[in-house]
């Protein structure tokens, strides 16, 4: 084996130990995440935080809790867009909403909400469709900083052009600018959008079901999980949805390789929207 | 140049369609190696690359799916707006991480993860393009003991990407598209 290949192996060992330390010391469990992506993010963290090795990162992490949020920033924060994949939101609006209208009250779970872009997209859509008042939205994430950002609802103003275009293409019935105020290069979203939102720290890896939902949207979160973890998360969704409840995944995610595939029917196949079958 | 390997990774940008048309249809039926490809495509479009090449090729061609086991002799394209990576257990993985050098999918991301997974049994190919993507990734492939091929910049639709790759890996094999095709199609999986 070449010298470099041998070095690579040491790096793998270090990463495993670092993830173990993160779990034992702080109960954040990335041990079953997709290793290729985790490795890439950790390498970036190591370089930018100025450490020579992952062992050095680990030492600091174990002894200085300040290190935790700095590392988590690399491991968890996902940059999303409002109304990302406009066709997905169009399908929610045109195909899922008519079913949701038949319920007197609704619960919607945005799992892995990160900084809130997807959450606000749903709240705006529900307001446009006249469903907001009968809905409770649960926005969950494992990253406290991201949750805090979601709760604040402030985004860089230069992102609004893309968000506005996405919203329009999703079949939006209003103007996105009705929902935010622009000042000092920032767009602050209307606080009334949050009146029916519960923000909560929840891990798809270690936490349990917390309620019965009518719709769960979890997009581009599970692609970072290995298959075991994906199955755990999908199992949580399965147990959170009554018969005919909806589950929306990312454009390139699928239930096809999951052991829970049989618990769901395709609802809008091309948009990865599924519906819970009877047990 | 190696005669055996376990996988091929290819990166292409501006002019990719023409360049890949000189390579992929040359792969014979029964070709043994998987071919993983990143082409820079706009994020908001459904890519037609896999359908287009499926019609032209004698090997199976598809868009990569998350957690899909890699099958020898199959050509996989990265989907638009996602990075494509290789896991060490030889499954494909997608990610929504930030664009790298303004690109998602990124050639560097594929190449670096494939270098981790395949080590010396990997062949990296950088084709035409108007940016620097792939240069770092090719370096990672060579550092892990793999082989590097670069399209001759003179013959490329956009020479910047091959030039950057050569600057980053001076020992890379510099070949015309026909020579690349001729070499790849003779590759076998090591027994």
Search tags:
heterodimer; A: 279 residues; alpha/beta; Rossmann fold; 2 domains; 9 helices; globular; B: 191 residues; seven-stranded parallel beta sheet; two-stranded parallel ribbon
CATH fold naming of chain B: Rossmann fold
The overall strand count of chain B is 11
Instruction: Report the structural category of chain A.
Output: alpha/beta
Any idea what the shape of chain B is? globular
Secondary-structure class of chain B: alpha/beta
Mean pLDDT reading of chain B: 94
Low-confidence stretches of chain A: none
| CATH architecture group name of the largest domain in chain A | 3-Layer(aba) Sandwich
Question: Which CATH class of chain B is shown?
Answer: Alpha Beta
The 3D shape of chain A can be described as globular
Beta-strand percent range of chain B? 15-25%
What is the CATH topology classification name of the largest domain in chain A? Rossmann fold
The CATH top-level class label of the largest domain in chain A = Alpha Beta
Description:
The complex is a heterodimer of chains A (279) and B (191). Chain A is an alpha/beta fold. Chain A contains 9 helices and 10 strands. The longest helix of chain A has 24 residues. In chain A, the strands form 2 sheets. Chain A has a 7-stranded mixed beta sheet with strand order 6-2-1-7-8-10-9, with helices on one face. A 3-stranded antiparallel beta sheet of chain A has the order 3-5-4. By secondary structure, chain B is α/β, with parallel strands linked by helices. Chain B has one domain: Methylesterase CheB, C-terminal domain (Rossmann fold, 3-Layer(aba) Sandwich). Helix content of chain B is 29%, strand content 22%. Chain B contains 6 helices and 11 strands. In chain B, helix 5 links the parallel strand 9 and strand 10. Classes of the chains: A alpha/beta (279), B alpha/beta (191). Chains A and B meet through helix 1 and helix 2 of A and strand 7 and helix 3 of B.
In a few lines, what is going on in this structure?
The complex is a heterodimer of chains A (279) and B (191). Chain A contains nine helices and ten strands.
């Amino acid at each position: 084996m070449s010298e470099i290949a041998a070095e690579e192996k040491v790096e793998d060992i270090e990463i495993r130990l670092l993830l173990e330390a993160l779990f034992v010391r702080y109960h954040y469990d990335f041990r079953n995440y997709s290793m290729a992506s985790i490795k890439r993010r950790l390498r970036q963290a190591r370089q930018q935080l100025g450490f020579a090795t992952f062992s050095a990162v680990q030492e600091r992490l174990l002894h200085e809790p300040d290190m935790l949020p700095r590392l988590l920033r690399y491991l968890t924060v996902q940059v999303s867009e409002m109304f990302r994949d406009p066709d997905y939101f169009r399908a929610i609006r045109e195909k899922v909403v008519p079913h949701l209208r038949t319920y007197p009250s609704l619960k919607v779970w945005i799992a892995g909400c990160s900084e809130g872009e997807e959450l606000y997209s749903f709240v705006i859509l529900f307001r446009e469709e006249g469903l907001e008042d009968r809905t409770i939205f649960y926005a969950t994430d494992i990253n406290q900083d991201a949750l805090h950002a979601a709760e604040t609802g402030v985004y860089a103003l230069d992102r609004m052009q893309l968000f506005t275009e996405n919203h329009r293409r999703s079949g939006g019935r209003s103007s996105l600018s009705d929902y935010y105020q622009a000042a000092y290069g920032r767009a602050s979203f209307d606080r009334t959008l949050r009146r029916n939102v519960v923000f909560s720290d929840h891990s798809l890896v270690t936490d349990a079901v917390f309620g019965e939902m009518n719709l769960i949207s979890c997009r581009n979160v599970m692609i970072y999980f290995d298959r075991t973890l994906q199955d755990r998360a999908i199992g949580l969704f399965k147990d959170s949805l009554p018969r005919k409840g909806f589950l929306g995944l990312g454009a390139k995610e699928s239930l096809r390789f999951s052991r829970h595939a049989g618990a769901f029917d395709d609802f809008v196949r091309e948009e990865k929207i599924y519906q819970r079958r009877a047990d | 140049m190696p005669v055996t390997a376990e996988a091929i990774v290819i990166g292409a940008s501006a002019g990719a369609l023409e360049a890949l048309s000189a390579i992929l249809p040359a792969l014979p039926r029964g070709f043994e190696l998987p071919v993983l490809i990143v082409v820079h495509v706009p994020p908001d479009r459904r890519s037609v690359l896999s359908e287009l090449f499926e019609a032209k090729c004698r090997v199976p061609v598809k868009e990569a799916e998350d957690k899909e086991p890699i099958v020898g002799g199959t050509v996989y394209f990265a989907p638009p707006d996602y990075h494509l990576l290789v896991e060490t257990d030889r499954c494909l993985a997608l990610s929504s991480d930030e664009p790298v050098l303004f690109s998602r999918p990124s050639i560097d991301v594929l190449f670096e993860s494939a270098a981790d997974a395949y080590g010396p049994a990997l062949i990296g190919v950088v084709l035409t393009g108007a940016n620097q993507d792939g240069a770092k990734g090719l370096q990672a492939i060579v550092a892990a003991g793999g082989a590097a091929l670069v399209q001759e910049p003179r013959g490329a639709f956009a020479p910047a990407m091959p030039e950057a790759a050569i600057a980053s890996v001076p020992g890379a094999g510099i070949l015309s598209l026909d020579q690349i095709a001729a070499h790849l199609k003779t590759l076998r999986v090591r027994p």
